[in-house]
């Protein structure tokens, strides 16, 4: 067993890995030392150890360091364990039972929302958003819960023209300005709502899940029967409170941090 004195070194090594992972390209040892407020000798020692273990790569001509193959292998192994789904499923199970509505976990896949997990309440309900189903992100509450926390440039790239805005029921944003207005409201609100945008007679409430970099990586959604002739403007704050609580717990479980409104 290592001694307690090994822990600070481990934490520093992990901090170096996080810094390398968060940069678009290799960085110099001096930059690492400056950003992490480490002595240069300590920084070079950590980078040397990480390089020897395969978690970092040294580019001698550039005098810079980047992530190594072992980091890629570790990340790939993490994904094979389906951690997001495994951590989310018990939360969705409790949410569905408590609220007696269908609970989902969805992620952004381009301009679509892709559903990874679905949990039914004790009395099952038939809805369109099943596991593996992809739906237009601008119409779904889950999609917009995530889109509300990505940059305007990313939103524009995903929806470059009016043709990008699929219409299913005549409801929902039909162009980029309308989508942006809705995303601004939902970001400030803390949750997203869709009322018959995807399927007439159904509504949804969704809240985002964030990673350690405050990026939206998923959304938790409750979907339920709701019939109105025209969009009635309901935001279901009581349901949203429970959905947000589940999303915040999943964010904490994966070591994430919620973005500021």
From TrEMBL:
Residue ranges constituting the IclR-ED domain according to the UniProt record: 70-256
Entry keyword set: DNA-binding, Transcription, Transcription regulation
SMART domains tied to this protein: HTH_ICLR
Keyword Endoplasmic reticulum: no
Superkingdom in the source lineage: Bacteria
Gene3D superfamilies according to UniProt: 3.30.450.40, Winged helix-like DNA-binding domain superfamily/Winged helix DNA-binding domain
Domain spans labelled HTH iclR-type: 7-69
PROSITE patterns hit by this protein: HTH_ICLR (PS51077), ICLR_ED (PS51078)
Annotated Pfam families: HTH_IclR, IclR_C
Matching PANTHER family: HELIX-TURN-HELIX TRANSCRIPTIONAL REGULATOR, ICLR FAMILY, HTH-TYPE TRANSCRIPTIONAL REPRESSOR ALLR
Protein name in the entry: IclR family transcriptional regulator
Organism, scientific name: Lentzea indica
């Amino acid at each position: 067993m290592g001694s307690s004195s090994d822990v600070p070194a481990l934490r520093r090594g992990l901090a170096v890995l996080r810094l390398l992972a968060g940069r678009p390209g290799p960085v110099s040892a001096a930059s690492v030392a400056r950003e992490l407020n480490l002595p240069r000798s300590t920084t070079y020692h950590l980078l040397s150890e990480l390089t020897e273990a395969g978690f970092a790569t040294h580019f001698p001509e550039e005098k810079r360091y980047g992530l190594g193959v072992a980091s890629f292998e570790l990340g790939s192994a993490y994904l094979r364990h389906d951690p997001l789904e495994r951590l989310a499923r018990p939360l969705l199970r409790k949410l569905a039972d408590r609220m007696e509505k269908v609970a989902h976990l969805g992620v952004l896949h381009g301009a679509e929302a892709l559903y990874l997990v679905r949990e039914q309440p004790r009395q099952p309900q038939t809805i369109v958003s099943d596991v593996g189903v992809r739906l237009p992100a601008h119409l779904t509450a889950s999609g917009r819960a995530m889109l509300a926390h990505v940059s305007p440039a990313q939103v524009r790239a995903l929806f470059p023209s009016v043709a990008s805005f699929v219409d299913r029921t005549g409801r929902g944003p039909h162009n980029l300005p309308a989508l942006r207005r809705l995303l601004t409201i939902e970001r400030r609100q803390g949750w997203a709502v869709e009322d018959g945008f995807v399927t007439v007679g159904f509504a949804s409430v969704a809240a985002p899940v964030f990673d350690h970099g405050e990026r939206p990586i998923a959304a938790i959604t409750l979907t339920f029967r709701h019939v109105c002739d025209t969009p009635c403007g309901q935001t279901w704050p009581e349901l949203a409170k429970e959905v947000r609580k589940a999303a915040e717990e999943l964010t904490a479980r994966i070591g994430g941090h919620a973005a500021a409104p």
